[in-house]
Design a protein that fits this description.
By secondary structure, this protein is α+β, with helices and mostly antiparallel strands. The protein contains 9 helices and 18 strands. Strand 14 and strand 15 form a beta hairpin. Helix 2 packs parallel to helix 4 and helix 4 packs parallel to helix 5. It starts with a strand and ends with a strand. The relative contact order is 0.12. The protein binds adenosine-5'-diphosphate and magnesium ion. Magnesium ion binds next to helix 1.
Amino acid sequence: MSLLSVRRLSKTYPGQNRPAVEDVSFSLRKGEVFGLVGESGSGKSTLLRLLAGLDDPDGGLVRISGKPMAGPKDRLVPGHPDVRLVHQDFRLLPNVRVEENITYALRGYDAAYREARLNAVLQLCDLQVLRHQMPRQLSGGEAQRVALACALADEPALLLLDEPFSNLDPLRRIRLKRDLAGIVRRSGTTAVFVTHDTADALSLSDKVGVLHQGRLLQTAPPHEIYNRPATVYVAAFFGHANVTLVSSLQKIARRPGVLSRFGLSASLCVRAEHVRFCKPPEADFAARPLATHYLGAYSLHEVRLAPGVVWQVSAPPDFGLPKSVFLQVDWEKVSGLAG
Ligand code: ADP
Ligand code: MG
């Protein structure tokens, strides 16, 4: 059975004519980490609040371990006892120490459980040496670990994190992300984290969900999202994608037979790194370079294959181009797109 099951969830805010979340369905097994990614305004926070039981959906149902979740209108205390939401701004109690922040999250439990869980999460989140510090003495990364310790204190079934990396020092972000992801993994808690960063979604999740205008366009493991995007939007959202109609390529391909495996009416997603510059006999296409963008680790070359067909091709940064070039595509890596 799924730990979290979301069925056809929708929410329109009063006075808005477009739903913030529309017909969203997905499910997670216990221990799975779900990265929910989308542009600003795509409905990520709204969906998270519905999962947290902080808002009522207009339609649809959230189940946790099979049990339907009640929204605020059906309960005295908002939220769900098995779900914890970690806010972007951490929301620690400012006037008490780290330790008391965690025991506050354990109020209502007996002393033995409080003590056991305090020690367990101090260790899990690597906070033993910080237990007597006040929140104002903590760095951003430390405050985030405390917020996570508070959220994990009473062993929730589901952990929700809203943009957990956005308030972290950019220089230390990579390390802090790894720490945070490690804590969530070791806790074994099922988690949903929201991000607008596609690299975070791909690198930290078991499953990625792409939200666009309130709709979940695709839910799949990271490599599938990247290599088999369901729509043009998903293809373009992750990395440099060249989306072109098969029928347009058919006219200019030097060996049109390579395209026969794709339907004539389909579009193809050809990633910039799946095209290489080659010698004429190996070429799938001839092209004319238009511009080069230096990006440090690599350069992105814009090349024109035909009128209206401009592709991006990545190559080592020191790669200079002649006036005309030849392109070879790694067809195994190319996927067809629905729409
Ligand atoms: P995200 O977290 O992806 O940036 P949100 O869930 O915050 O997106 O917002 C989704 C849409 O709902 C946006 O168009 C936003 O303007 C709208 N919205 C969010 N909160 C409210 C609210 N309380 N009242 C009215 N509209 C809202
Ligand atoms: Mg948001």
